[in-house]
Amino acid sequence: MPREHPLHRPRHGRRQLVALICALAFFSAPLSSWLFGARPEQLENRPLAEFPSVAQGFGFFTGLNGWATDHLPFRKAAVQGVSGISRGVFGEQAPLAGGSHSSPVGAGQVDAKPPIDESVFPPVIEGRDGWLYLGHDVSYRCVPSRSIDEVVAGLKAWRKAVEASGRKFQLVIAPDKSTVYPEHLPENYPGEDCSVAAREEFWRKVPKATGAVDLRAPLRQAAERNGHPIYHDIDTHWTHEGGATMVYQLAERLSPGISRTWKMTPSRQYPHSADIPDLLGQDRTVPIQAYALAPDGGADNTQFKPSDFHEPLHLKSSPKPGMITNPVRMVGDSFSQFASPYLAATYTDIAITHPGNVATNPEAAANFLAEGDVVTFELSERFVAGGRYPLLTPQAAAQVGRVLAAHPVR
Fold first, then answer.
1. How far does CA 356 lie from the centroid of its chain?
2. How far is 322 from 401, CA to CA, in rounded Å?
3. DSSP letters of 376-403?
């Protein structure tokens, strides 16, 4: 419009140009830095955000922020700097978690979820005696995506779908560290009341209603036998002893008495980058004690093949006494990473895929699960209790169940 028109508004051309340049610089920084040799680092315990697809519609634009943030160069150094200033100058923890897209102990995050207000729920809970807890242990229980009843209905639908095809179904829930070791939590912390109430309701209802293996007592018993905690003090995961405890429990339910011949002995030690300090901008490691496991009491039969299961991990071994020979297909997350060497030692044919794969590509996941006579789900308490696995819907189970029914086990 001409300047003299009463509705004329200046275009602020220079300001618009500066804003456009800044936006282009932000979103192109990951690509330009990659060309000059910089590579993004995985900061949270989850895969880096993928570049959004144009098929997502407006979600393409909303997804750009998470992708650009994850792939910014020198992000870890910036987080460490902010953390140092916050603690050194102000004497408090910096709010450094990755926002609502952050998803530690990775699970498929493809359906809508209530955002976590990190001004209320911190990403890290600093406990007693130097223990650190993942904030999502609390926030996911206090801000759930699904009710406990909806979670139970989803898990029961999976059991029904798998067993209707003639397969055996096993469900095991890896307890949160805050569930197994609540004594190291601080005296008071945000969300304490709602998270404790939700935790008690979860363990009172879910194992009984779904047939899930309750590992809480076996884990504490294993810790007492070994003389040290079965979870790392600054990592959210259990130790290799925890992974092996799960393997023993699952095998005994498939074939009672099969573990009588198993012989498990300490093997190598190695450092492992702890996941919770990363959220505080710190690089810290925990010592890992690995084990040899001989199912027949003879030679070690473990296989150490690191994997996050986003690409399914296949583990095969020649049959030996004490091994389970039925083909097993498993859905498991990062807790299963500490169990996979011992699964490889005791199963002749087992393969593991990530829970996110079931949500993002249910047809491929269905075909994967159809390869097994036994289907095992290992799911993390925080994601189940918070209803944050997309596969926790009867519809997801029914979709996969149709494929399983078309390929029954006789």
1. 9
2. 31
3. EEEEEHHHHHTT--TT-SHHHHHHHHHH
Q: Which domain holds residue 71?
A: 52-94
Count Cβ neighbours within 10 Å for each residue of 170-184 and write b for 16 or more, e otherwise. Answer: bbbbbbbbbbbbeeb
Integer Rg of the chain from CA: 24
Question: Please, what is the end-to-end C-alpha distance for the chain in angstroms?
Answer: 77
What pLDDT score does 318 carry? 97
Quote the tokens at residue 354: 């990530």
Q: What is the pLDDT of residues 324-353, one digit of tens each?
A: 999 999 999 999 999 999 999 999 999 999
DSSP structure string for 81-131: HHHHHIIIII-S----S-GGG--SS-----S--PPP-TTTS-SEEE-GGG-
Q: Please tell me whether residues 358 and 230 are part of one structural domain.
A: yes
186 in any annotated domain: yes
Nearest CA-CA partner of 151 in 373, 360, 404, 380: 380
Same domain, 333 and 197: yes
What is the C-alpha separation between 137 and 128, in angstroms, rounded?
16
Provide φ and ψ at 102, rounded to 5°. Answer: -65, 135
pLDDT band at residue 261 under the 50/70/90 scheme: very high
- Cα separation of 193 and 207, whole Å? 22
Are both 222 and 88 inside the same structural domain?
no
| Cβ atoms of 93 and 122 closer than 8 Å | yes
DSSP-derived letter for residue 51 is P
Q: What is the pLDDT of residue 118?
A: 84
